[in-house]
Amino acid sequence: MDSLDWFDPKSTEAATQVQAVNRALKLGGRVLLRSAGLSPWYIRVFEGNGFVARRVNARFPGTCVDRVNMYASCWICTKTECLPPLPNKGGMEENIDRDRNLSSASSVLDNLEL
Questions:
Q1: What span, in angstroms and rounded, lies between the C-alpha atoms of 97 and 81?
Q2: Residue 85 CB-density burial (10 A; 0-12 exposed, 13-18 middle, 19+ buried)
Q3: Which of 31, 64, 71, 91 is most buried, taking the most CB atoms under 10 A from its CB?
Q4: DSSP per-residue letters across 20-72
Q5: Distance between CA atoms of residues 45 and 12, nearest Å
Q6: 82 to 5, 28, 37, 56, 105: CA distances (angstroms)
Q7: pLDDT in tens, 57-96
Q8: What's the pTM?
Q9: CA distance 106 to 114
């Protein structure tokens, strides 16, 4: 998730991505991210969108965090709250239902004997 270092703090792109990650993870799911900063601005975005963030490593002058030593900090964000689902715009939920039906139909076909 170090790509967030490149996002514009004034834009909504980081929040959009973090919200999508929240909706994709189960409760208790975790995100590992590394940053060029010791306290990245977008940690607050995670915390505002259902995550608890904890810095698990930091590079200070004269120390190394790993063999590459490229990042200044490493964070684990744990999902503690589920965001509400997005409103149905153009059949997203219908597509999910269709995919489920196709998946169950193919598993039925896999069990057929010829």
A1: 24
A2: exposed
A3: 71
A4: HHHHHSPTT-EEEEEESSSS-TTHHHHHTTTEEEEEEEE--TT--SSSS---S
A5: 10
A6: 24, 10, 27, 23, 30
A7: 999 888 887 778 889 999 999 999 999 998 877 655 555 5
A8: 0.73
A9: 15
Rounded CA-CA distance 67/87 in Å is 45
Asked whether the beta carbons of 23 and 86 are under 8 A apart, the reply is yes
> Which strand (E) or helix (H) includes residue 77?
strand 73-79
Structure tokens at 67: 């063999």
Instruction: Classify residue 23 as exposed, middle or buried by CB count within 10 Å of its CB (0-12, 13-18, 19+).
Output: middle
Name the residue type at position 23: R
Sheet holding 30-35, edge to edge: 30-35, 73-79, 51-58
Measure the CA–CA gap between 38 and 36, rounded to whole angstroms.
7
